[in-house]
Amino acid sequence: MEENQPQSGPITLVISEVVDPSKLAAYEAWTKGINHDARQFEGFLGVEVIRPRDHDHPEYVVIVKFDTYDHLRRWLISPTYRDWMDQSYGLIAARSQQYLPNGLELWFTLPQARSRGGAPLPPPPYYKQVVLGVLAVYPLILLANVVLGPLLGGLPSLLGLFISVIFVSALLTYPVMPWLSKGLGFWLYPKTRRP
Questions:
Q1: What's the rounded Cα separation, in Å, for the pair 103 and 101?
Q2: What is the CA radius of gyration of the chain?
Q3: Residue 75 needs a FRET pair 20 to 30 A away by CA distance; which of 10, 30, 125, 137 works?
Q4: Cα separation, 145 vs 82, whole angstroms
Q5: pLDDT in tens, 147-156
Q6: Is this prediction's pTM over 0.85?
Q7: Which GO terms describe its molecular function (predicted)?
Q8: What distance lies between CA 71 and its chain's CA centroid?
């Protein structure tokens, strides 16, 4: 069945963790330990920790990459991972996770839903990603021509194109693609259940 097939291609797990301000040193040590052990698992591609700027609300963002969803899942269900999660109790005030398959899916608003088997949703089929991309990009290019065309007429063509690309990319990333992917969620993710 389609939903039981392993995810092919790289996948990113983005974890947001709000840390108890009095336990920052312990959390930093914990992060080094869990990331060291993740590196030992098959398919591990890398990890990046984005540290907070606001020490009154220390929210860390941890970005973990594996080469396939199956390899990521093996890490997440391993006794090693569970042991590290047990050690995190008391350090972390709040945690959220989001799976982001690489590619256009990074622009999507992923539904807070799972497949019937309980696994995180796989990305939509490639053709649906292409259709969504066309539905988002084509109107934005038309809008860029109408809005920016008169302003960019005197500039060299490559510079004008560069400014148009910035305009389209900014609107595509937010609000267009999240809004469109949420509005078409019934079509992109037809086999979902709410948690």
A1: 7
A2: 20
A3: 125
A4: 53
A5: 998 998 888 8
A6: no
A7: monooxygenase activity
A8: 17
